[in-house]
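Objective 1.3, modelling of assemblies. Example input:
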Amino acid sequence: KAGVTQTPRYLIKTRGQQVTLSCSPISGHRSVSWYQQTPGQGLQFLFEYFSETQRNKGNFPGRFSGRQFSNSRSEMNVSTLELGDSALYLCASSWTSGEETQYFGPGTRLLVL
Amino acid sequence: QKEVEQDPGPLSVPEGAIVSLNCTYSNSAFQYFMWYRQYSRKGPELLMYTYSSGNKEDGRFTAQVDKSSKYISLFIRDSQPSDSATYLCAMSAVDNAGNMLTFGGGTRLMVKP
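Predicted structure (tokens):
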């Protein structure tokens, strides 16, 4: 069974631009969560989508948004990029919402110049 | 102070040693406890998952949870060079409206041949 896939794997943007990252969950998984990983703050929860609805949201500004499609694939968008948004963005999937066994993808490494 | 504290290491041990990795936490609502392993430039991989207090064993890995002390541990027996990675503890509360995990900062482990 294929794991969680994320595209693109690497991205370079400049300040003020926006970016869209994509995540395809494990087949059959309906919950997708997004996390930001930085050396200073570690892994921090961004938001979770289940059945195309945002279930939970972390403490991030409104520049960070996401959505989920009917096939459970998810995208996250960051608008007006700042240097501090440089990070590894990880997507995790699970069968359903409220299930703690989440499986992570390889991440998208974003560099903001 | 962060909700979950983890010694960043690095922890360097010889091959075959018993490794002890630990996390402390402050939120008494945490009921689910997980350990993830993350290799360089990869996403976190779920190793162990424990609900509430007690021990759980899987091969060379043993997870322990002491809720009275708000302390969790991961033991690795007969450590191998392939165990060299960053180990992340993660937790979630029963009252979460979804899949939000709170992570420790990670401990970098190096097992020397």
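Chain A touches chain B at residues 4, 31, 33, 35, 42-45, 48, 50, 55-56, 58, 90, 92, 94, 97-107 (CB under 8 Å).
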